Amino acid sequence: MKPARMYTAAPMAAPDPEALRVLRERGFIQQISDEEELKQQLAVRRVTFYSGFDPTASSLHVGSLVPLMAMAHLARAGHRPIALLGGGTTMVGDPSGKTELRQMLTKETIADNRVGIAAQVRRVLGDVPDAIVVDNGEWLLPLNYIDFLREIGRHFSVNRMLAAEAYKQRLEKGLSFIEFNYQLLQAYDFLVLKRRHDCTLQIGGDDQWGNIVAGVDLIRRVDQGQAFALTFPLITTASGAKMGKTAAGAVWLDPERTSPYDFYQYFVNVDDRDVVRFLKLFTVVPLAEIERFEAVVGAELRDAKRLLAQGVTTIVHGAAAADEARAGAAAIFGTAVGRIGATGTLTGLPSSVPTFEVVGTERIADVMAASGLAASKSAARHLIKQGNVRLGDRKIELVDEELSLGDVGPGVLLHVGKKSVRRLVLAR
User: Fold this and answer.
1) Does pTM top 0.85 for this prediction?
2) Which domain holds residue 314?
3) 320 with 354, same domain?
4) How far lies 252's CA from each of 65, 148, 221, 313, 371, in Å?
């Protein structure tokens, strides 16, 4: 297996006319407004484009890598990216794809979240000197509501808005008035970025199609300008599950929420049917190199999975963290160290293997929930009942089983399934 390369996205001297073709071949394109005209624009000039990220949490999750990687590919093709952090729109809440009203966050929480997400965006985009990261709170929060309704709201048809899929789904369970404003605000974002930065393309998930097209239409109505929409398919795994969901919850880009080791393990253990598709979406491995895995099945896909895990972990956490995560996986599942004793204790484990401190008498289910091996205590008990939990080589069978001091040591591992482990050590 070839070593993964660190991704850089230095802008080209001239735009690459094949930018859309690359995105399509790598699986990023679901819908495009006026595709032929956009293709011509991308071929003859440097297009400024944007994607939005509402800071509803302290970190983005792996699903956000789809727009981020699309942005990186467009930047490599010579175009200028804008990452819009929704300090204003987060205070309203996007109803798209949601079954209920988002939790209302304080301004202070939103500001803290925004700082962490900005750093993640810049890391994935790589070396793009003129990449722009902006906060729409800058222009949304000072808005005069009456003026906004008169100048922007009058261009929107309530009938057309209610016909949008995002609103139709929510009407069955209840759509709040505050959420109903979201499309107007997102469209206004596009108009502001068009005026300030000549941004003419917005990209995002396909659940955003209605909101993005509303922005395209607003630019045409208000400024008689031209703009474009491009959306990606909503990524699910081959089993139909939402991308980035595990028994322990979401897979985050923040190493404090999902360790680089767990992040690496998520990708090295993806379903065989997802490997080639994810290599195209989440790495910069050339398509010609990926094609050799399309006819490979079973154990022969291991190299492809390692290439995927190494590549995406390098992009998100850096080459050193990816190498450490790979070493940790080799130590536990491979051959870097030897097993000793009947308890499955290991020696020489790399520091990348996540460690969790215990007193030595906690319930194992509680340890699983507290260490991130399970999303909750009830989920932990469910995993134990299913026979998916081991302490060393011993299967845990009782949902209320407690640790003993003899269960804890430098090489003792608590396993959940084949993917997730924690090294248990005594608290000091």
Assistant:
1) no
2) 245-336
3) no
4) 10, 36, 39, 12, 15
